[in-house]
Write a structure and sequence with these properties.
- By secondary structure, the protein is an alpha+beta fold.
- The chain is 29% helix and 36% strand.
- Strands 2-5-1-6 form a four-stranded antiparallel β-sheet.
- A hairpin with a 2-residue loop joins β3 and β4.
């Protein structure tokens, strides 16, 4: 089995709009949907978590930056296409403008 990282991406404006008026109960219901989905896919070895603010570290210094990556999951699958099929029914895809990017975690050969 190969290892993959799935990055949950959504336009920042759509995320901000979605967050308006959300209650604690709304968030609990959404988390229950995520947990049920994850349990139905044994290939998801780490559901991951939402991600916070970004800081870019470069040779020239450190700066605050922003991107549209909202979270990640780790999964195992035979191929990238198989990993994509696992993510095809992700609750994330129900959000406006949302998508998932899947990348193989390459072996270092050590």
């Amino acid at each position: 089995m190969k290892k993959f990282i799935a990055l949950y991406i959504m336009p920042a404006a759509a995320m901000a709009e979605m967050m308006k008026g959300r209650t604690h109960e709304d968030m609990k219901v959404e988390m229950d949907v995520w947990m049920t989905w994850a349990k139905s896919h044994k290939e998801i070895v780490d559901l991951g978590a939402p991600l916070g603010k970004n800081k870019r570290v470069a040779a020239s210094g450190t700066t605050e930056v922003s991107n549209e990556i909202g979270g990640y999951s780790l999964l195992e699958a035979e191929s990238q296409d198989a990993a994509a099929a696992i993510m095809a029914d992700s609750p994330h895809l129900k959000m406006p403008g949302a998508y998932v990017e899947i990348m193989e975690c390459m072996s270092m050969g050590v």
